[in-house]
Amino acid sequence: MSVPVRAEVVVVGAGLAGLSAAIRLADAGCDVHVVEAGGHAGGRLATDRVDGFVVDRGFQVLNTGYPRVAADLDVPALDMGFFWPGAVLRVDGRVSRVVDPRRHPATAPATLRAPIGSLVAKAAIAVYSAQAGYTPVDRLLRQPETSAEVRLNAAGVGTEAVERFFRPFLAGVLLESRLETSSRYLDLLWRSFARGRTGLPARGLQAVGEQLAARLDPQRLHLHSRVSEVAPGRVTTAEGTVRADAVVVATDPDTAAALLPGLDAAAPRQVTTHLHVLPTSPWRDPLIVLGTPGGRVVNSVVLTDAQPAYSPDGRALVSSSTLEPTSEAEVREEVARLHGVPTTELAHLTSVTVPGAQPAALPPLQLRRPVDLGDGVYVCGDHRDTPSIQGAMASGARTARAVLRSLRPPAGGA
After folding, report:
1. Element (H, E) at 348
2. Which residue among 127, 233, 301, 341 is least packed, with the fewest CB closer than 10 Å?
3. Is the peptide bond before 364 cis (omega within 30 degrees of 0)?
4. C-alpha 69: how far from its chain's center?
5. Which residues pair with 269 in a beta bridge?
6. How far is 288 from 286, CA to CA, in rounded Å?
7. Model's pTM, two decimal places?
8. pLDDT for 413
9. CA distance 7 to 292
10. CA-CA distance, 383 to 401, in Å (whole number)?
């Protein structure tokens, strides 16, 4: 169906932010249309099939500890496979596991023996996790803001834990290894890890966006419809101009900045992911394997240990991430070494570099950035909140409320 010439609301972009806004507006009775340049709903959560394997665009996971995930998604319907909360470390040729003993009590002795500092330092990790996990959010956000590295050091977790566990683990999440991210975002992120589980939908991460899109009238979702211009009251596509009472720009940051001159939005973080196939998994537990100091790989994980549906035939699918563009040949030996397998067993499936993978979250952390730009133009995306699935969905919900305040003001003007 072609885009209409008139709509009450036009949402530009069918990523998680745009879909979160659109479904709320539709539920409120608005005539809302979503236009998307790409061929699928979900934005950066994109999934392909390569030789029968489920391949997401970069290593991403769904965290059930995010409030908007718990509130807005039917997580059981996604048929999730979950990772264990923790990681595998290789230190001086020795393999160690660090696992949250609350979830897997049998791992407590191995975690206590892991080379990440003294028992006092390990107790400090537990205290920090409890504080981040269960302190009310408003109190977390009132804490003095520093960098993530300063926050961890102040928590007393110790140098060994920072260098061998936190730095490589967080590099794969924050897409930066200097731990210069805001301490407030670190606290919020660690809260979600402490309270939730991370995993993969059976059909890939794109299924998250498709589940949200399924709540819309399919006649109002227009794929392969690129927007060239946004102005108060109108959106211009290749098919023509759509007049609207409200326009919501819910694209990636670079596109949003191009459509809305003067908007401060950018996604400087990037990641390269290499996918390999192994005959069988070298591990017994679904855990991320952390990169070692001096290496290029920040983490590597057997995706099929958590989600067997990613493989068509029982072989193991391995995802390895670097923070800079790399070739498969440059990381092949490192990936094999991390998993303790010969390079001859690694079959390269595909590699992808994702520029603009996510915004930075440097201090001062700018939560709840303005979404109402005036004149009936709005903007949402993870660049308006936190660089995460939570941030994208929360900003979409917040934008929908702003639109409704304008289009559906409460009776009496209150």
Report:
1. strand 347-358
2. 127
3. yes
4. 11
5. 358
6. 7
7. 0.95
8. 54
9. 54
10. 18
Rounded CA-CA distance 169/172 in Å is: 6
Q: Is 48 exposed, middle or buried (0-12, 13-18, 19+ CB in 10 A)?
A: middle
Q: At 217, is the secondary structure helix, strand, or coil? A: coil
Kindly report the length of the chain.
Answer: 414
Pairing of strands 316-322, 297-302: antiparallel
Tokens 């290749």 belong to residue: 238
Give me the residue label for tokens 């003294």.
118
Please answer whether residues 191 and 140 qualify as being in contact, where contact means their C-beta atoms are separated by less than 8 angstroms: yes
Q: Residue 350 phi/psi, 5° resolution?
A: -170, 165
Do the beta carbons of residue 267 and residue 64 sit within 8 Å?
Answer: no
Q: Which helix (H) or strand (E) holds 162?
A: none
What tokens does 175 get?
């897409």
Find out whether 278 and 318 touch, Cβ atoms under 8 Å.
yes
Q: Do residues 193 and 84 make contact, with C-beta atoms less than 8 angstroms apart?
A: no
Under the banding of pLDDT at 50, 70 and 90, the label for residue 414 is: very low
CA dihedral 27, 30, 31, 36 (to 10 degrees): -70
Give, as one character, the DSSP assignment of residue 106: G
Q: Please tell me the distance from the alpha carbon of residue 318 to that of residue 37, in angstroms, as a whole number.
A: 31
**Is residue 156 classed as helix, strand or coil in its secondary structure?**
coil
Contacts of 371 (CB under 8 A, 6+ apart): 378, 379, 380, 384, 395, 398, 399, 402
Q: Which two tokens stand for residue 265?
A: 């939005």
Residues 308, 309, 313, 315, CA torsion sign: negative
Pick from 248, 274, 258: which is nearest to 343 by CA?
274
Token reading at 195: 């309270």
Dihedral over alpha carbons 109, 111, 112, 114 (to 10 degrees): 120
Look up residue 182 and give its DSSP letter: B
Please write the tens of the pLDDT for every residue from 250-307.
999 999 999 999 999 999 999 999 999 999 999 999 999 999 999 999 999 999 999 9
